[in-house]
């Protein structure tokens, strides 16, 4: 039996390793060709100090206070030369991936399905034998190479990997390189290269209520997160607010309804900013955040949307005089 350890490097690269029962994370990483910072191996120097964001593990008693204090251990800091995983874990490594002699992984796959969900949104699915080895944290993204060019575009996974297949929600940008390919040329079987996973925007261990805020195709990482939550369950309430500009930008509403049926404590709402909208709820996401969603600050907020939305939400939270327990966000802008 092994446990899967996600190593998140400070340059955004994530690599997954398998750690055997009783094997230290440092030994597992080195066995799989990843040189995490390390010096003494005895828990005496602190060179391998990292931060465990989630998972259960044993730190043993062989390290000394100078290497890892009791207060640091309580906060979640670990020494990878002593850490032995007791479940799947996520570990933040304070070093760049290239320094640790690793880099983002590359995969080759093929288009399995491409659909125009609306005039503004394209759903893309790709599949390949190599993707059976692809692991990522829900919310992360990859760089997809635009077929026929050397250009890449970054897209968040909108699904978990299943049977070598993953999906994305892609904004249809007029004149966009990827958009033009998908709307005019793409067909099932076309080869696609991708590199990753990347990004610090991903679902952490759920320890309190969540408020999820999505703008446009920023919905993608949340549908991947909700798939994971539906699998593992959550005792805490979760609420998603999905905001778009026009009525035709609303997509995947059936999927959100299905999540609401599968996850007992999950609820969602949507709103449309255009004053000409026929949708019942109008305005911006900030107009639909209720006090109960903020839970007096005892809440983790996840936000994915364009820069103006991120700035507006940040300003709104400050105006409430609250500081959420955690505020994770990812800005995105379309590439022409």
From TrEMBL:
The keyword Iron-sulfur applies. Residues 3-97 form the 2Fe-2S ferredoxin-type domain. Residues 104-204 form the FAD-binding FR-type domain. The keyword Oxidoreductase applies. Its cofactor is [2Fe-2S] cluster. GO terms for molecular function: 2 iron, 2 sulfur cluster binding; dioxygenase activity. InterPro entries: 2Fe-2S_ferredoxin-like_sf, 2Fe-2S_ferredoxin-type, 2Fe2S_fd_BS, BenC-like_FAD_NAD-bd, Beta-grasp_dom_sf, Cbr1-like_FAD-bd_dom, FAD-bd_FR_type, Flavoprot_Pyr_Nucl_cyt_Rdtase. Keywords: Dioxygenase, Iron, Iron-sulfur, Metal-binding, Oxidoreductase. It comes from the Bacteria. This is Toluate 1,2-dioxygenase electron transfer component.
């Amino acid at each position: 039996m092994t446990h899967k350890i996600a190593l998140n490097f400070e340059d955004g690269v994530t690599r997954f390793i398998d750690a055997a029962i009783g094997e230290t994370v440092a030994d597992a990483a080195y066995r799989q060709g990843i040189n995490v910072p390390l010096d003494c191996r005895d828990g005496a120097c602190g060179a391998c100090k990292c931060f465990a964001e989630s998972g259960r593990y044993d730190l043993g008693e062989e390290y000394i206070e100078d290497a890892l204090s009791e207060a640091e251990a309580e906060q979640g800091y670990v020494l990878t030369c002593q850490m032995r995983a007791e479940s799947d874990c996520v570990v933040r490594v304070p070093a760049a991936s290239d320094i640790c002699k690793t880099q983002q992984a590359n995969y080759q796959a093929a288009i399995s399905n491409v659909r125009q969900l609306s005039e503004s949104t394209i759903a893309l699915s790709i599949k390949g034998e190599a993707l059976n080895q692809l692991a990522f944290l829900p919310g992360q993204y990859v760089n997809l190479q635009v077929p026929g060019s050397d250009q890449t575009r970054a897209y968040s996974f909108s699904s978990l990997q299943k049977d070598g297949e993953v999906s994305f929600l892609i904004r249809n940008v007029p004149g966009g390189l990827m958009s033009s390919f998908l709307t005019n040329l793409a067909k099932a079987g076309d080869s696609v290269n991708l590199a990753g996973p990347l990004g610090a925007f991903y679902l952490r261990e759920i320890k309190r209520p969540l408020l999820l805020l999505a703008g446009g195709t920023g919905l993608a990482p949340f549908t991947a997160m909700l798939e994971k939550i539906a699998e593992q369950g959550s005792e805490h309430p979760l609420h998603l607010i999905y905001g778009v500009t026009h009525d035709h930008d609303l997509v995947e509403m059936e999927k959100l309804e299905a999540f609401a049926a599968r996850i007992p404590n999950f609820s969602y709402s949507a709103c449309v900013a255009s004053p000409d909208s026929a949708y019942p709820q109008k305005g911006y996401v900030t107009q639909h955040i209720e006090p109960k969603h903020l839970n007096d600050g005892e809440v983790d907020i996840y936000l994915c949307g364009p820069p103006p939305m991120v700035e507006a939400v940040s300003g709104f939270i400050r105006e409430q005089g609250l500081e959420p327990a955690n505020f994770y966000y990812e800005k995105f802008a379309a590439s022409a």
